[in-house]
Amino acid sequence: MIYFTFDPRPDLKNDLLSSIREEKFEFTRQVDVELLKQAEILVTYGEDLTVEHLPFMNDLKWIFVASAGIEKMPLKELKEKGIAVSNVRGIHKTPMAESVLAHILTAYRSLKTIYKEEEQKNWNKKVPSKELFGSTAIILGPGAIGGEIGRLLQAFHVKTIGCNRSGKKADFMDDMISFDGLLNALPEADIVISVLPSTEETKNLITAEHFKAMKNDAMFMNFGRGSLVATDVLIEALENGEVGSIVCDVFEEEPLPAHSALWNFEQMTVSPHVSSHSSRYLERSFDIFKRNMKIYKNGDLANLENLVNLEAGY
Amino acid sequence: MIYFTFDPRPDLKNDLLSSIREEKFEFTRQVDVELLKQAEILVTYGEDLTVEHLPFMNDLKWIFVASAGIEKMPLKELKEKGIAVSNVRGIHKTPMAESVLAHILTAYRSLKTIYKEEEQKNWNKKVPSKELFGSTAIILGPGAIGGEIGRLLQAFHVKTIGCNRSGKKADFMDDMISFDGLLNALPEADIVISVLPSTEETKNLITAEHFKAMKNDAMFMNFGRGSLVATDVLIEALENGEVGSIVCDVFEEEPLPAHSALWNFEQMTVSPHVSSHSSRYLERSFDIFKRNMKIYKNGDLANLENLVNLEAGY
């Protein structure tokens, strides 16, 4: 039985049921342990499974996570039980890269200021206008999403420097550095973008020292996970003018509390964790699911797309 | 003598003087007829020359216009006098294409709404998020600027349809249509962008009929010249919901008067004719001027870059 812990839009649900006729489906809006006991395949957004559910996973072989965030899942325990976990990480690349480019271009072309002047019916031509052309960007996490950001930045003639643990080559990156090399490379960057997942290694990877190393007019963007950098570090960098602007789509605490000082800075943009949103999201997710159902039915669990490394946590 | 009717930034001026040592230069902030009489080459932004200046152009051979807008110049009279006019039209392509992409992505990723919510310290995830990927754009005026817009849109997997007088093939356009075919093609477009210059043919090219033919959620952008479409036509389209949003960088009357109804629409963005602005503008202009000085000195006036067709007006 294929058990969904959410209830998809009727048109998408009907499409699923008619394309996978041979299987029994169940859909509920919360985890139902009685159904979980009978499930062979579980489809979830990844935020509703805890260690308490493990004893009920009797027949479970595969968890399909219809999102990229798996940090709330009991990964080690799932590994012990021999359950395969795959997600849809590639799916976010288009909306996320479009969001990142939107924020970068907005900053370079001063749209936020233009909108404010517009509110006041002010025709003010004295807004700064920079060109993205010829600038340099460091992309922390040059995987599927980071690579798509790199591809688009290159189309704008931006030099892309990928930054990952090993410094190993990645697509659409003109240069590569390792996490250890980041501090040295920062003075060169006009834009620093993170799309890193939350792991032990990426937690607090960005510190006050990194902001001090950045150009004073650099743009820092966190579109991965809030654990990358402490809120206080962001506030200090803004207060000290160590960075030109910051755009975050993710925060240590979400929703960002109304009393947070981050809301108050002119140079700060708070995006409410929406950069991966897309009106076409679930449609694409289910395309991946259907494709992988065939792989699963062939018994090729090891060949599922976007299989999660349950030890590394990504 | 090379006569500038504006006074450039000292660093750029010094660079000019030291790279063209053999010529005499004059710089004033307004047209001085005594200097004009002696000038062989005139460098202007194109907005300060009138028919009254013609009798003083005794020695003038070449006018270098450090902008793209030449519609205020007495072109026919200059032709009669045998004076060559060239401009820097290619120079605008980078900042303008970046501006156009900024506005498109902002709309697709709802940044204007996100900024408004941010002002209120609202963490509101319920903002619409569309993907640019897979959409269709019509580009009116697929020349240097339109082509650069097309190139970038194609990087975002947007289908580009160029629209010019003849329907003749243009770079970075998946399809081509002529002005006559526009009305038929509009129902297909998610985005309609004009970067057309102001000529007899482009004046009021866009009418109420065109807006009625557009998708109700289409985005219309005028980044060429305000004469393309009457202000009343824009207001009517917004009032009737015939278009999803409008972004204009140019208007029939500039500055857009504070009493204009265009300021009042939520779906309207007023950009104060800044899309071509760039902190690197004059630097690039002077690079073109220096390059063309060599062509001029060789007596090759017919081979100057961006030579203006004084009859056609572009």
UniProtKB/TrEMBL annotation, chains A, B:
It holds the Pfam family 2-Hacid_dh_C. Keywords: NAD, Oxidoreductase. It comes from the Bacteria. Residues 101-275 form the D-isomer specific 2-hydroxyacid dehydrogenase NAD-binding domain. CDD domains: 2-Hacid_dh_1 (cd05300). InterPro entries: D-isomer_DH_NAD-bd, NAD(P)-bd_dom_sf. GO terms for molecular function: NAD binding; oxidoreductase activity, acting on the CH-OH group of donors, NAD or NADP as acceptor. Transmembrane segments: none annotated. SUPFAM superfamilies: Formate/glycerate dehydrogenase catalytic domain-like, NAD(P)-binding Rossmann-fold domains. Its EC number is 1.-.-.-. The keyword NAD applies. It is an enzyme of class 1 (oxidoreductase). This is 2-hydroxyacid dehydrogenase HI_1556. It comes from Kurthia zopfii.
